[in-house]
Specification:
This protein is an alpha+beta fold and 482 residues long. Helix content is 36%, strand content 23%. A hairpin with a 6-residue loop joins strand 13 (242-247) and strand 14 (254-257).
Length: 482
């Protein structure tokens, strides 16, 4: 019932009387629909999913209403808590393979183990589902008890596990290791209340001020709390430097700066972004780029620079409303131009060329343009077959069941011979030329999967970063003389 929303916006000489009359009209419409419509309409559906979202759509695409369930989920996200089973899985078309179960979580308590393949969830056979359906089923399964049918490598019997979801701690800095001698790598998946402190703690574990450089990975980071972005940027920027400014129609203009008592790190930094880096990620990246404090690599960011406040409402619901825009220190608007609605920033979003502190040119108009554009590598046909079929992960699962694995594990020629036999039995028979040209990639991917299943995905990610072109380019830049 979105058509009801316009009733709230009719102007009149006496706003209070007019509002009362128009609200009565809306209620009259609901009563009529409830009494006469072919299908019954509950108040929750009519207002939570119809009238209120319809009203917000006339403002801008990012103003959102949260029903009680969504509002509770939002509060959990701000605390870095997620409801789930505590397992990390590899999701393939029609297949889900467990890579790791976190200690003390429902997955670990139930006996689920790395290498297990989930065949069915609550009676739904995964092999029959499209990829999007599979992802949706996994998301829904984390909200209530789930019955899993599981195949374990080396065991012909189908195992059955019942898992009950619990609140699982989900740290916003989920990866940190040395990616090259003296150069640290950390990945930030979101900006939550404790992210700034967690980044600092992680840097200290990597070597602190003794680091020769840091790769900060913000790819796929949707952002979060603006204050967390300020705290993170303040770890690298000079005291009193501008982090961002806020400008809006009714909101008071504001400049947010690095605290005067901050003691920043001085080692060089490279930041990785892509099209899913948004909001607080863009605040950090834009500030570091404008002050010439970091080299930005990857793909242009998403362009979400709206200042939003979340207002609690009755019945434990809430609404996120756009009140202003974020601007980088050089004056670039982070927000991509919006068209239509009451919030049209087509003309208010600065376009064209801006300049960093050192006079370098950076482009405005929405999102953050990297200093060097690097696209993810394109998969070859053989790589796509091996990846989509899960063949390497399946082979790794069987291999770790029968071989002791050490942290310095390497894929030997003998293991590659075993893999070829395994693939041939599954009708995957690459030509000699294809095999030789992909040999290095196959060794790396297989090593990653073996370490994933033996020591957890963090260890496997270290292997992946060694072949990641963005990470390797960042390392080369950080190593180069300045």
């Amino acid at each position: 019932m979105p058509f009801l929303a316009f009733l709230l916006f009719l102007a009149a000489d006496d706003p209070a009387d007019t509002l009362a009359r128009e609200l009565k009209k809306m209620l009259d419409v609901f009563v009529t629909v409830d009494r006469e419509a072919a299908d019954p309409v509950t108040p929750d559906v009519a207002f939570y999913q119809g009238a209120i979202p319809g009203m917000l759509r006339t403002l801008d695409p990012h103003s959102i209403f949260f029903d009680p369930g969504q509002y509770e989920q939002l509060k959990q996200m701000e605390k870095s808590e997620r409801k789930g089973f505590g397992s990390i899985v590899s999701v393939l078309p029609g297949r889900v393979i467990v890579l790791q179960t976190m200690p003390g979580t429902p997955s670990a308590k139930s006996g689920l183990a790395a290498g297990d393949e989930i065949l069915a969830i609550n009676g739904y056979v995964l092999a029959r589902l499209e990829f999007e359906q599979l992802v949706q089923l996994l998301s829904e399964a984390r909200q209530r008890p789930a019955l899993l049918d599981v195949r374990r490598p080396g065991n012909a019997r189908i195992l059955r596990f019942t898992l009950t979801p619990e609140l699982v701690d989900s740290p916003s800095v989920d990866r940190a290791f040395s990616v090259a001698p003296g150069i640290g790598y950390l990945r930030i998946t979101s900006f939550d209340e404790g992210t700034g402190k967690l980044v600092k703690t992680t840097i200290e574990k990597l070597g602190g001020e003794n680091l020769k450089g840091l790769v900060m990975d913000l790819r796929d980071d949707p952002g979060g709390v603006a204050q967390a972005a300020v705290e993170t940027a303040s770890l690298f920027l000079q005291p009193d430097q501008l982090v961002f400014s806020i400008k809006g129609r009714s909101a008071k203009s504001e400049e947010v700066r690095v605290p005067k008592n901050s003691k920043p790190y001085t080692f060089p930094v490279a930041i990785l972004i892509n099209g899913k880096s948004a909001s607080a990620s863009e605040i950090v990246t834009g500030a570091m780029q404008d002050h010439d404090r970091a080299t930005v690599l990857g793909e242009p960011s998403y362009g979400k620079g709206l200042v939003q406040n979340v207002y609690p409402l009755s019945s434990n619901s809430g609404v996120a409303l756009t009140i202003a825009f974020y601007y980088t220190p050089s004056g670039r608007s982070i927000q991509h131009p919006l068209h239509g609605g009451t919030l049209d920033v087509t003309t208010s979003t600065p376009q064209g060329v801006f300049h960093t502190d050192a006079g370098r040119m950076v482009r405005g108009g929405g999102g953050i343009e990297p200093d060097e554009v690097i696209h993810p590598p394109q998969f070859s046909r053989l790589a796509m077959v091996l990846d989509a079929s899960g063949s390497l992960t399946s082979f790794a699962g069987e291999y770790v069941q029968t071989h002791p694995i050490k942290e310095d594990f390497q894929v030997t020629p003998a293991i590659l011979d075993e893999l070829q036999v395994f693939l041939s039995a599954r009708d995957i028979r690459p030509s000699v030329g294809d095999w030789l040209s992909h040999r290095e990639w196959i060794q790396s991917r297989l090593k990653q999967d073996v370490l994933n299943l033996s020591f957890g995905v963090a260890k496997g990610d270290e292997v992946e970063m060694q072949r990641d072109p963005m990470v390797q380019r960042a390392v080369a830049i950080l190593r180069s003389p300045r």
